[in-house]
């Protein structure tokens, strides 16, 4: 019988899904498995493609065990379907947790109802509870205009978040802005909050493959990620319109709620230098990113301290300049500036963004590799998680 402590990782999204949260939670589970017995509770369908069943009951090459709950194949991009899916995921995970008695429970913040359920179970089991905040609910929904702060739904969800934060032994956030927000809005003390940024995947392998920019061809700006509520993509498309006929192209990799809308907008504006690829498999995804001359990351202006666009850490892997349309002093804005990795635009208008695109095209220097890679290594992040488990 193992004398090692057992950790249950709870996440709706997990391997083999390639969406950002699935990658992060998979890396955490794999990374801590050398010191802990790790179990994962997640859903049995792909989050990206709900028609695809996921049947893996262990993480290949590791001792991590996967216990999958059954969920229907609902479209997460439709509001009613998403609400129903969240309710089913929450109910089934709650029932699954009743079968567990781990020493530590680690929950991510999506879906919004998940952390408080896991926290309550951990408290009942006299176990440690770690709350990993990726997006802060209901705050993000209110800032995006989906619910009012005076509504009963907002107040109910906020009480659940407050309870989850209270139940947590440690609250893990991705950036300094989120820590500040939790201090000011939720009264969470500094000693309870641990900043663990996401990490650069396999940086040394990719750095060896990087080739100098090819300025003899079009400058290729790449956005890779979810086309959902938090990214400011419409403004990017409007700005790119000014570069029609110039040696410049924008590649948008990924899908989501607004993908069809952005494609229609591009066609209506007659923009010819924008390409939508949809979601890509790993090898194609990496190939497209390696061919980029620069990357784009964005966060809507009102989401300071509530959400951190984690795709940036993947961009850093390639040491190409990053253009950030970001709130001033937000975590990713600070990261780009502190590591000399690109340009930050905090003026949310078409002309300012177009000027920044011109500047990123002319941008030649990127920060020193060691300065960027060392603080955002997977090994350092996993060591930080181990220290609080």
CATH topology of the largest domain: Rossmann fold
State the name of the first-level CATH class of the largest domain: Alpha Beta
Which regions contain 5 or more consecutive residues with pLDDT less than 50? 203-215
Radius of gyration: 21 Å
- In the CATH hierarchy, what is the superfamily of the largest domain? Glycogen Phosphorylase B
Strand content: 15-25%
**Helicity, in percent?**
25-40%
Order of helices and strands: EHEEHEHEHHEHEHEHEHEHEHEHEHHH
Number of domains: 2
The CATH level-2 architecture of the largest domain is identified as 3-Layer(aba) Sandwich
**SS elements, strand count:** 13
What distance separates the N and C termini? 21 Å
- Taken from the alpha-carbon principal axes, the silhouette is globular
> How many separate helices?
15
How are the strands of the largest sheet arranged?
A: 3-2-1-4-5-6-7
By helix and strand content, what is the structural category?
A: alpha/beta
Q: Largest sheet, if any?
A: 7 strands, parallel
Averaged pLDDT: 90
Word description of this protein:
- Strands 3-2-1-4-5-6-7 form a seven-stranded parallel beta sheet, sandwiched between helices. It has a six-stranded parallel beta sheet with strand order 10-9-8-11-12-13, sandwiched between helices.
- The chain has helices at 20-32, 79-97, 114-124, 139-143, 152-167, 176-186, 203-209, 233-240, 259-268, 282-290, 311-316, 331-338, 350-361, 369-373, 378-388, and strands at 6-10, 37-43, 65-69, 104-108, 128-132, 170-173, 193-195, 219-224, 248-253, 274-278, 294-298, 322-325, 342-345.
- Mean pLDDT is 90; it is low at 203-215.
- It is built from 15 helices and 13 strands.
- 39% of the residues lie in helices and 16% in strands.
- The chain has two domains: 6-168, Rossmann fold, CATH 3.40.50.2000; 203-373, Glycogen Phosphorylase B (Rossmann fold, 3-Layer(aba) Sandwich), CATH 3.40.50.2000.
- By secondary structure, it is an alpha/beta fold.
- The relative contact order is 0.11.
